[in-house]
Amino acid sequence: MLRKIIHHPEASGLAVMATMVFCMSNYNLVWRYGFGNHHFQHEAVIYPIALTMVFLTKKFISAPLAKLLHKRSSWLSKQPKHITFPLLIISCNTLIVIAVMTLVFKNYVPSHYLFDYLRNWIRAFVVAIPVFFFVVRPLVTRFVKWLQSKVAAPMVEEL
């Protein structure tokens, strides 16, 4: 079963997404509570919720929207998809997920939801783009390819 998971065509993308959500949720918790007050219990509660929200947002909102924009925009269709597609996905996901997470976990000063939401979104977006393109995607993709080279591919009958 592990061989099937490692050699699945979407394995690298899902691993990148899970790692990215983990990095960004830790970043947001450290930013909010500080290094001294960041506890694993907070992350253990927030990470599964955030990962589920990001996955569902990407599957049903961000990816279809990015595909539509690439199809309809002549400028976007000429740009490299390995850059513009993740950029659109991250933009849309951070807009939606940070709005919901800020509201659900009350990470704002009462009566200042919009201000705190915009501040959180800008801070997360500015960090998410370089972390994704220069750290998470290259490292996780390289690691998944290394794993695939070490673990034999499943036989055709097993698939």
Write a concise synopsis of the structure shown.
By secondary structure, the protein is mostly helical. The chain has helices at 2-6, 11-33, 40-72, 74-78, 81-104, 113-150. It starts with a helix and ends in a 9-residue tail after the last helix.
Please describe the structure with a list of short key phrases separated by commas or semicolons.
159 residues, mainly alpha
Give a verbal description of the structure:
The protein has 159 residues and is mostly helical. The chain is 81% helix and 0% strand. The chain is built from six helices and no strands. The chain has helices spanning 2-6, 11-33, 40-72, 74-78, 81-104, 113-150. The chain is globular and about 55 Å long.
Please work out how many helical segments DSSP would assign: 6
Major sheet, described briefly?
none
Distance between the termini: 10 Å
- Percent helix, as a range, is over 70%
Q: List how many beta strands DSSP finds.
A: 0
- The H/E string reads HHHHHH
Mean pLDDT: 86
Look at the helices and sheets and give the structural class: mainly alpha
Please tell me what the overall shape is: globular
How large, in whole angstroms, is the Cα Rg? 18 Å
Proportion of beta-strand residues:
under 5%
Low-confidence stretches: none
Task: Produce the secondary structure layout.
Blueprint: H1 2-6, H2 11-33, H3 40-72, H4 74-78, H5 81-104, H6 113-150
